[in-house]
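Here is one chain, start to finish.
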Amino acid sequence: MYRCGKESLAVVFLADFGGGRYLEFVEALEPPKPRSKKWVLIVSSMFGCPVKCAFCDAGGDYRGRCSEGEIFEQIDYLVRLRFPELEVGVEKFKVQFARMGEPALNPAVLSVLRELPRRYRAPGLMPAVSTIAPQGSEDFFEELLEINHEIYRGRFQLQFSLHTTDAALRDRLIPAKKMDFSWIANYGKRFFIPGGRKVTLNFALAEGAKIDTKVLIEHFDPEVFLIKVTPVNPTITASVNGVVSAVSEGYVPEQVKRIEREGYQVILSIGELEENRIGSNCGMLLRRFLSSRESSTKSYSYELEVL
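Its structure:
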């Protein structure tokens, strides 16, 4: 087991499951909020990822899906570090399936989501699933909708990673077969529970990527969907593919401001720049670990600690 990071911000853990299978998982805070207010666990659902997004370091070395037990090994490890009795006294305890892998391609994620409220005494529990909405995963999404309505009743964060409204560019950034905007829009309306959390449309906005407000309005109801805009993090893959962020600290593109004027709730999530050095946001510590000579000037600069 390896780790790197800063306990007051974020720590990445890298575990060797044998046979060339590695998993990463993260615990993170949102300064200046203390852990008692918000604590985020970001876990993997796959050993690597088959999707190979143009700015994600997790793709390209896919070794299969995690079992339910392997997912819980990540969560249990982090919970026991802070709350040995599994009683998580946190106002907002977020368990996010967004590290390595596409969760909608792993049915074990659904089993974990059903078990989470029974396994931990955590009144602030809020699960989160981040997905590209891959084709062929309709059964997964139907059960996910059932879980939201029956167990979490709207206290659930569902995020669709779109990154642009330009369909051709979306295919280049996410080179996999995906549901179209009409499917996502219809599903989001069914998933949403009035009074609960809105469905998030995430745009890691690259230079040249467009968010066309006409496309948003045509498909996505502002009463159901919110827009989250983030930078493209300085990963090795982004650098190799020439994908450069259009969002930075102190600079917000005009198209983001236009979205707000159309009545959408917009979350501009830039985060702490130090997370790039840790590799805790979208970076992949495993990439550095396996290919130590590869580097990025803006990420992966924290030292690895052997546990």
